[in-house]
Amino acid sequence: MADDYPFKETVRDRSSRARTGVLTTRHGELETPLFLPVGTKASVKAVGGDELGSTGSISLIANAFLLSMKPGVEIIENAGGLHEFMSWEGGIFTDSGGFQMIREGFLEKVTDEGIRFRSPYDGQRVMMTPELCRDIQLGLGSDVAMALDVCPPHDAGEDEVKEAVRLTINWARRFQPGPSTDGQLRFGIVQGGLDRGHRKECLDKILEVPFDGLAIGGLSIGEPKDVMFRVLDDLVPHMPDTHSRYLMGVGSPEDIIRSVERGVDIFDSVFPTRNARHRTLFTPNGKVNVRPSTFRNDPGAVQEDCPCMLCRKYSKSYLSHLFDVQEPLAWRLASLHNITFIQQVIKNMKMAIKEDRFSIWKEEFLRSYLSGGG
Amino acid sequence: MADDYPFKETVRDRSSRARTGVLTTRHGELETPLFLPVGTKASVKAVGGDELGSTGSISLIANAFLLSMKPGVEIIENAGGLHEFMSWEGGIFTDSGGFQMIREGFLEKVTDEGIRFRSPYDGQRVMMTPELCRDIQLGLGSDVAMALDVCPPHDAGEDEVKEAVRLTINWARRFQPGPSTDGQLRFGIVQGGLDRGHRKECLDKILEVPFDGLAIGGLSIGEPKDVMFRVLDDLVPHMPDTHSRYLMGVGSPEDIIRSVERGVDIFDSVFPTRNARHRTLFTPNGKVNVRPSTFRNDPGAVQEDCPCMLCRKYSKSYLSHLFDVQEPLAWRLASLHNITFIQQVIKNMKMAIKEDRFSIWKEEFLRSYLSGGG
């Protein structure tokens, strides 16, 4: 059975749990560590599927819940699936969207059956069950579908965490009653709050379900960073090497690197694109803010050696101007840069792991990046 | 002297005043008829200089007045000029911006000296003289600079039109006291409202100034279309063949074609990009509105034979979705399409003129386009 897993570890770092691997999907082999830009509504904000590949991205993640509301699964099925619909030939993960349903004010009630919520678009009542969640993602035709889970807030009490774990496990069994046979991979999600015991219990039960990979939910939602890393330190060693490990909602370059060090393979986050739209750009010397005082009269590139469209063709001065006069081109160029930056970090990190110098690379990168000298 | 003009007529239609020609600028030979997308603030809205060439555009127009306020001429000079600043290697026209100063509520007073206005950005008082207007455009480094003129409203009275003509002529002489010698071309602007006599008088006086080309201002600002064409019918035959003729602010495919028929060579307009952002797309069968009722479930291209990014890679269905969920990618794709459409019209029209079938081509295009069947 283990030989059937779609994930293969390729190189393991000797001084940490960092590793490289390959996740085989119906849209190609996705090398890990892997960062997924977020295209919630079937568009990575301000960036087209036609140019996402230029950032070094090989897969993205969309939100099944929101897409099922608008434009609706049928429309996307008629288009030939999400890849055709958004003109993207790389990998596509779909998140169940349980997190959005619970957090963004649409929720009416969570029951054993599922999540009852009101559509943010037309106010209609919908019951999202694990079965419906699976069917939606099957209809969308993503390469990797995420289970429906319950994600309690980071400061939830003991009872709330236990109930979330209970529902997450029950729903996982209903979401994936047998092994995937249709080419779509399905990942289970481990909840359990910040408690080692609940996490371990949830992991053990999720491992009994024939998922193709594992995700870690309920982190990076407001808890202190050291607490998040402590949870990873406790949890990841119990996760089998045969499963790729996806830490949902992370994140920043430094959090990604420190999570890879702890054995995580896959990441997604709006961090690069949201920062970009708010004038914050990543550079090897740290984040920089596109301030008129520093950018306005600088004809140099944001980052000299960066292969992105912004840095190859445009100056700091021009980008500053575009933000100042609120031209939408600013969002596109800044987003292309930040996604490219993260993908360059991923690429360099993979090379460092393969060349047995991950720790040195990590120290060097973080020393420069966190110096904030940029 | 006539041999020195930067414009050469190449082919003249036998049944109308339509013609092809070449305007030689320091950024290449611009074939006419020529359509300039508008990049008011040094960005064609939602479209980067890196992809404007893909629409078939070979030149654009920016607004010297607004750019002189923000980011300021010095910043653009430091960048190496407007071409470098916005990463655009094609031609660049700059409009004086007199129209914006007068129309958009910044105006304080028009005197013999120039236009006194308040900066829309910081409220500072500025006196825009013809000399300053020339110096700004020289600093921006555009290929073609437009004179400072006074453009009265289409329903202005006799006195207002006469005063506008008087100032436009005086300012033209101050703007261009001798022939251009620095590689930048300078165009004079003919005002005169809707009156044949005032137009002719203004043209005669403007022709005494050693401009490199001629523009027609004060049209397409609210007057009926047949009145605009009547003015062109009266005015253009008096314009020498040695000067390229630029009709400012036009426009729609049908207005461009009908103006080419009357001898106009050059056009600029926000029409394609503004329509695009408001969900209106051009097709050979007329304008179509991206309505959910017709687009939502249509996996076909907006226009099957269109070479633009939207039509090559994306469906009607996806575009409709992007507009519905307000993704900024919608503006970019729709703008790329509409600019490409206009440039295809220009390209086909040039070919028709060269092959002595302009009238037939025009009839066929307009029959289909104005049928509104799209």
Task: Write the topology of this structure.
The structure is a homodimer of 374-residue chains.
Chain A (H helix, E strand, L loop, with lengths): L6 E6 L6 E7 L2 E5 L1 E4 L11 H4 L6 E5 H6 L3 H6 L3 H5 L4 E5 L2 H6 L3 E4 L4 E4 L6 E4 L1 H11 L3 E3 L11 H18 L9 E6 L5 H12 L5 E4 L8 H11 L9 E3 L5 H8 L5 E4 L1 H7 L2 E4 L2 E4 L2 H4 L13 H5 L2 H9 L4 H26 L3 H13 L4
Parallel strand pairs in A: 4-14, 5-6, 6-10, 10-11, 11-12, 12-13, 13-14
Antiparallel strand pairs in A: 1-2, 2-3, 7-8, 8-9, 15-16
Helix pairs in contact in A: 6-7, 7-8, 11-15, 14-15, 15-16
Characterization of this structure:
2 copies of one chain form a homodimer. Chain A is an alpha/beta fold and 374 residues long. Chain A has 2 domains: 268 residues, Queuine tRNA-ribosyltransferase-like (TIM Barrel, Alpha-Beta Barrel), CATH 3.20.20.105; 93 residues, no CATH class. Helices cover 40% and strands 19% of the residues of chain A. Chain A has an 8-stranded parallel sheet with strand order 4-14-13-12-11-10-6-5. A 3-stranded antiparallel sheet of chain A has the order 1-2-3. A 3-stranded antiparallel sheet of chain A has the order 7-8-9. The longest helix of chain A is centred in the last third of the chain and has 26 residues. The mean pLDDT of chain A is 95. The interface between A and B is large, with 40 and 40 residues.
